[in-house]
Amino acid sequence: MLRDPDTARPPGTSSSSQARGAGKRAPGLPQAADCSGLDWANNSGRLLTGDRALAAVSSDMVISESLAYLPTRENCCILDERFGSYCPTTCGIADFFNKYRLTTDNELLEIERILQQVTNATGKADYLIQHIKTLYPPDKQQQQQSVEGLTQKSKKIIEEIIRYENTILSHESTIQQLTDAHITNTNKITLLKQKIAQLESSCQEPCRDTAEIQETTGRDCQDIANKGARRSGLYFIKPQNAKQSFLVYCEIDSYGNGWTVLQRRLDGSEDFRRNWVQYKEGFGHLSPDDTTEFWLGNEKIHLITTQSTLPYTLRIDLEDWSGKKSTADYAVFKVGTEQDKYRLTYAYFIGGEAGDAFDGFDFGDDPSDKSYTFHNGMRFSTYDSDNDNFEGNCAEQDGSGWWMNRCHAGHLNGKYYIDGVYTSRDSDPAGYDNGIIWATWRDRWYSMKKTAMKIIPFNRLSIDGQQHSGSIKQVGDA
């Protein structure tokens, strides 16, 4: 059904205007004609035409909910494909507006929702900040920091205490040992104090134990025996070239033979690892009953053996750990001067069951063993004065002083080994045969229990009637 153009027209509009209007009318908006013949009734009901009507429409469009762009005389009739092929009409603007309105409204609602969430979150944050400020005022924060500092200090103190506890525990055994040692030392000190008190009491009494020294003197022990002495003991002698007399032990028998003792080994109580000066001057102790170990001294031995043209005989006394005894005698025994390093010389081996170890021994180690171990003509050596024929130091290796070659077959100043038998492991670190040995009687890994070196004038040797079975040369032999 066709409408009446007049009834469909707003007041003040013409039918020609309606015919030219092609677009749909938006709700609440009047239909517009083209720009040149536009009539419009404003809010006051006054009819506007032409440019005024266009301005009124533009004004109402600005006031509406949304506006695509502001129309003016310059851009009113510019073609825009979004509005069709002609100038925008009211219906075209409404269509454009409705096309984007829903999306725009949704975006605005989302923005409003987000803004509301931000506002709510900001309010909560403000509330929390105020609450925190209430709970932790500035003075309370300082107190909290102070508490944290004290906590750290406490932790450090606890760690230090634990470290000290561990140290104490680790040294607990040491502390216990020191405590035990302290108790032991305290007991020893108490005993020593008691002994000191006893000694002080004894020292207040007159001395009763004295070393009895015989009155008779001479150039040697045979000279003393020739003067009538028949008792073994301590005597002073003064050899021909000696500047002063010195004490010796004289072994005098019932036949009037006087042996001057040069060396004694009995029990290992004396250390024979001595230096050159000590071997020169002598060391150990001389006792009236001949129960102590000693070395008379190289200088004294030299003075005795070289004081006259009458030669001396050297006797070696040996005793093993089974109690068996043996001897070895050497004629024309002498010891040279210190300048000659107290060189040992003798004329020949007289005899004795012990055999002639001074002549060397073939141990089977080397074809030259015998020539490497003889002692006649050898100089005396100590660990601090090496005068042997070895590239090393025999005295240092064996821990003693002796007439060393490369090194020895007879060695009476060696290390004292209980029970006699020893091994190279026992003689550590050198690993050499360093015992009191006499290889022609017992092997080099057997150390004697007792030894003695003593001299007597050569012409007195056979007076006791002793014969040496198997001896090389007897007294009086040509």
Automatic annotation (TrEMBL):
Q: What are the annotated GO cellular component locations?
A: fibrinogen complex
Q: Which CDD domains match?
A: FReD
MF terms in GO: extracellular matrix structural constituent; metal ion binding; protein-macromolecule adaptor activity; signaling receptor binding
Occurrences of domain Fibrinogen C-terminal (ranges): 212-459
**InterPro entries noted in UniProt:** FIB_ANG-like, Fibrinogen-like_C, Fibrinogen_a/b/g_C_1, Fibrinogen_a/b/g_C_dom, Fibrinogen_a/b/g_coil_dom, Fibrinogen_CS
State the source organism's domain of life. Eukaryota
Residues covered by region (Disordered): 1-31
Q: What is its main location?
A: secreted
Protein's cellular compartments: Secreted
Q: Which UniProt keywords apply?
A: Blood coagulation, Calcium, Coiled coil, Disulfide bond, Glycoprotein, Hemostasis, Metal-binding, Secreted, Signal
Q: One Pfam family, short name please?
A: Fibrinogen_C
Q: Name one GO biological process term.
A: blood coagulation, common pathway
Q: How does it assemble?
A: Heterohexamer; disulfide linked. Contains 2 sets of 3 non-identical chains (alpha, beta and gamma). The 2 heterotrimers are in head to head conformation with the N-termini in a small central domain.
Matching PANTHER family, A to Z? FIBRINOGEN ALPHA CHAIN, FIBRINOGEN GAMMA CHAIN
Name-wise, this protein is Fibrinogen gamma chain
Species of provenance: Cairina moschata
Taxonomy, top ranks, is:
Eukaryota, Metazoa, Chordata, Craniata, Vertebrata
